[in-house]
What we know:
The protein is an alpha+beta fold. Helix content is 17%, strand content 38%. The chain is built from four helices and eleven strands. The chain has helices spanning 2-6, 56-68, 77-80, 170-189; strands spanning 25-27, 34-36, 47-50, 81-108, 115-130, 149-151, 162-163, 195-205, 209-222, 225-232, 238-241. Strands 3, 4, 5, 6, 7, 8, 9, 10 and 11 form a nine-stranded mixed β-sheet that branches. A hairpin with a 6-residue loop joins strand 4 (81-108) and strand 5. It is flat. The mean pLDDT is 90. The chain binds zinc ion. The site of zinc ion has 8 residues, from loops.
Amino acid sequence: xxxxxxxxxxxxxxxxxxxxxxxxxxxxxxxxxxxxxxxxxxxxxxxxxxxxxxxxxxxxxxxxxxxxxxxxxxxxxxxxxxxxxxxxxxxxxxxxxxxxxxxxxxxxxxxxxxxxxxxxxxxxxxxxxxxxxxxxxxxxxxxxxxxxxxxxxxxxxxxxxxxxxxxxxxxxxxxxxxxxxxxxxxxxxxxxxxxxxxxxxxxxxxxxxxxxxxxxxxxxxxxxxxxxxxxxxxxxxxxxxxxxxxxxxxx
Length: 251
Ligand SMILES: [Zn+2]
């Protein structure tokens, strides 16, 4: 299976595309051409890149700073922990710009007497969908920075970085975005009514944009246990990090 996949050539320059099984969107390492694999007529996708601004030394420093800050961490965390894995990965995302309009009917029961309510909730979203099916990444905690976005350029990708292609095509990304946005609209509805009797959402969707963003994945060890952290390579902000449980000692 993987052999068949690896025989696919770049529609632009003819170079062999290195694809793993399941990857649907390919970016050529030689010319940067991005296309959907298996599409009847290959077409070029608009593709952006968020530039990485950090290096290993800076990431290690950022992690140390994070360990020293805040009250919820062991006091010796920075001193006694060791970074065991540090990897820059370019993750594929689809950014889906859409407007969701939900109409609803229901009952407001938190007031007395309970009152029927109906209305509309309309919101615009730039909804981010990760192009990987089995990745553990907190997409909702991550915001694509507006600055630092350039047309995709493979020469900006560090040779040691891991580059991942998307396993979702644009249509699948839209379906995922619609489902997640609808869930979010339903969550917002809880402010309006307590019992829902009708809820319909319609969407107006623009063509999704494809982009790669630099994320630093770290593992550190503290007192024999391993913990994970993810840092945004553009802004340097901590996206998620495990904090070792501490025994609180009151002074
Ligand atoms: Zn090419």
